[in-house]
Fold these 4 entries.
Entry 1:
Amino acid sequence: QGQEKLSCNPKKENGTHVVLCELGNPMKAGARITVDMELSVSGLEDMGDAITFHLQLRSKNSPSHGSVTVTVPVEAEAEMELRGNSLPATMVLPTSWHGAPGSRRLEDHGIRVEHVYELHNKGPGTVSGVTLSLAVPHLLGEHVLLYLLELGTEGGANCSRHPALNPAQV
């Protein structure tokens, strides 16, 4: 009729985590009980896409036991945020400006513009295997719009080399 808190005891059996809950002692014949359980499980990063619970109902007075298997999907939740900045923020090239073909000096290929991108995990979960693809327009027709000089990372990230990166080896 009312609600009662269960007394549950966690323990390990044969390498498996077990939680034993006492539902009633003694329990009247024909009694019906509904149990809501809230479990907090940590370390699910490497569990795959589901976790399985095996529930058993045992009675000391009856040889019959009931069991059920419950599979709960595991979904990681993490919010990613991408921030970007260009230094200088704006740049205007004169219409008559032309690069010096064959030169190996940076200033003969244009004004240096640095693009910085920061990828942040705002949580709550951890992430791995994240791929960030940046499309940088380096040509406008047959003319060089941006001369891509170098690509660098910090914080253990890996980058794939762009085929148009520093083609004149400046």
Entry 2:
Amino acid sequence: QEILEKYRDLFTLRWEGVIGNMRAPSQAEWEQLLTNCSAFLFYGMERFMSHVLLDCLVAMNIPKCRLVILLDLARSQQSYRRITNSDTHKSCPRIALEGPTETAMLLSLAGVGSVMGTQWYTSLEENAARLETLFENLLSSGKTTGQTVHVLQK
């Protein structure tokens, strides 16, 4: 919340979405947010695709969304139990489609221009540091997505 407030005026007055851990967005909210945005940020626990229905995503046409930033793959004991319970009802190929590379490919096929994402499990704190770096470079410094990814790689 602090990071969003800090950079709100630099980018847009129209930040829209679901913030906090009070409730999970419905599938309709996920679809609305993805189809009506020019940039989409997911900062959450476990795999992004474990929150979105695969069938709905592959049927979506979202060319207005030029950038998706996925700061996912954060894990806690509670999130691990949730994802483990959820995964028991999925096939192995379905779980494989929730990987970082597969997620980027699916979003690209749906029309997203660029996808930035984590590649391995991390903590919310490490993702918060990444988010701060992303916003500092993209919004404050005006760097391109490629230049910003380069900064993150260092």
Entry 3:
Amino acid sequence: WSKIKQKKGANDIQKGALYSRAYRVSELYLNVSDHADGGSPDPEQNNALAAALKRAKDSGVPKDNIENALKKAAGGKDKGDTHLVFEVMGPGSVGLIVECLSDNPNRTVKFLSTILKDNGGRMADVKFLFKREGRVKVALDAGDDIDARLEKLVEVALDADAEDFDTEDMEDGSRTVEFKCPQATLHKLTSALSAPGVCRELLESELVYAPIEPLEDLDDETGENLAKLVQAIEDADDTLKVWTTADA
């Protein structure tokens, strides 16, 4: 699946930029309504929301779109959208969790059912294949002492109930670190890593559906069919995000 995603051409990349902007708006909604970091619509009281706002602005999301998303999440005049979660069995017995935001759930269900019928998927009980967990990603500045700062960062994270982490070195010498934690301690971990002097900045804080046993080495035909299904679901206006058991 990872290899398939890397094969997207220029048109897909351009389209992906639009999806990124759309997701940034939905991310604002979820960081309030899903209580990912305390549920406050005030970015000064909600570290995850503050990070999501920065990413939305950096992605080029119009100011009006951001304000509308926050109004919906806070229960303002535009309240009425429903957060929906669907369980799907895709090609090759790959499980999918589909998150949607809809002002007409019946329409969303019918549209998703049509997509599944046309792309070899079906509604099925697959949530047991996933675990709900928190993910918090932060950035460290480049420097000769980056390893020492990473060690201190990890200590802070472990004290805040982090369970595991991955690092990635960037071209400019900086480093990103993604921590995993139980769903219930996401707010605690986010707050700890957002404290002054702990890291350069908070990049992400979200609740995810992570596969308990990620599928590997899908055959080409299954991979292509899965990619088509996921793309079709992501193309739907109501879709927020798609999680699959083929994702690590």
Entry 4:
Amino acid sequence: QIIFYEDRNFQGRSWECMSDCADFSSHLSRCHSFRVESGCFMAYDRPNYMGNQYFMRRGDYADYMSMWGWSDYIKSCRMIPQHRGQFRIRVYERENFQGQSHELMDDCDNFQDRFRMSDCQSCNVMDGHWLMYEQPHYRGRMMYFRPGEYRNFRDMGWSGSRFMSMRRITDSCY
């Protein structure tokens, strides 16, 4: 469960959400703060789960725009279901599952150091939910991946140069 507020510090009109929302515009004209009461969510600065993303876990976010460095409001959000079981993903160096590939079942803080792989441009998530980051050691902009095939990250709105690290979204995130 997450509660969005129009103004900073949990002021103004509010709207409660308990699932995915592709476009906030019918609920609030803007969003400056929110409170995650349970679960984990991804926030997006464009409708339909596109644009910059940020992982949100339980807690208060009184002024997320200055905290994350965003210049625009949250426009959509996606609930991340809790996953129990194994994690498995295959990452590929180039689009359309081309180039060097590696299967992972755990976090990877640096693709270059671990695999001598300078980029990751497509993936197949077999089990679990994952976050990929544009810099090593889980820093920089991130993107959320749930089970499925991802042939080209640019088709999902990714405008970053590359992904360099990734981690599982585990029970400890909740």
